[in-house]
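**Tokenised fold:**
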Amino acid sequence: MTTRPPTTVLVIDDSAHNRRTIKQLLESEPDVQVLDWALDGEEGLRKVVDLRPDVVTVDLEMPRMGGYTFLRLLRSAAPTPAIVISSHTHKADVFKALELGAFDFIARPAKPTPQALEELRTELLEKVRAARLVRRGGGARRLPTRLPREREPIEAPPFIVAVGASTGGPPAVQRLLEALAAEPTFCVLVCQHMPSQFTKAFADRLDSIGPFHVSEAKEGDRLAPGHVFIAPGGRHMLLVEQAGHLVLKTPEVAAKDRYVPSVDRLFTSVSKALGHKSLAVVLTGMGSDGAAGAKDVHHVGGEVWAESEETAVVFGMPQEAISTGVVKRVLPLGEIGPALLTLARRRR
């Protein structure tokens, strides 16, 4: 029986303390090996070409060549999955890094307590292992174009779509919203696995691009056409009917909750509120979140769609949903938006 070689990693960070910490956390498990480290993006590019690691971890703020330039050049020099490790004080930066082709990001804890370091270790190992499976090659993701927002108020009821995503999700969600821009009646509920400190920055970034009004969901928000609500970090987002209106609830998490925010809980709440009109879409991501909720949507006569393997950065969540047997359509990311437009116009 052959033993799989360890996942190899190059650590790029100008802080000796950060490099040492990341190396120790990664090599706490025998299936991960840190090949070397680099002080900045310039040295990092040379070592990526020479060493051919499976995965790179990179800081964004470094001397000589920072993380943004490194990510731009990495795709052409030696395509390698890159995980950005960023502080909480630079929330908006990580989304630019994702658009430049980063595989995912991790929030560096503000205080290196034993619990925070253990959480960092778990997340780092999980994402490094997942990144190894990513197909190499392909260019950076398309950068956002500001879309017009000027619209007349819409009186029609919103066409509601619930979307779940994890790893690779932020650029995928952005691309989906851009594809839906031609239809003013959409209201999109997005559950994106993300550290709690970053969900508002994610919403603000999407809002700055247009054409939808995008905000982090708050307790009691009422659904309306042309709005996108992002599940708040550290809480769930549920849809309920209240006094004849569709509103959002943002309950606190329970100790038993595996995923926060939970795609399953969003999908299940949508099935209860909308019945046969429920529509759930599972995009790229690790794990199985969304599969149980997908079955609830199917049970009431709603539809479940999933992103296909050819475009999903990580096929885990879509594959788990598909394996339940309830997914009606499996489409590449670029086809999901146009297909939703067609469905929305047919249902009018």
Remarks:
- Confidence is low (pLDDT under 50) at residues 137-144, 151-156.
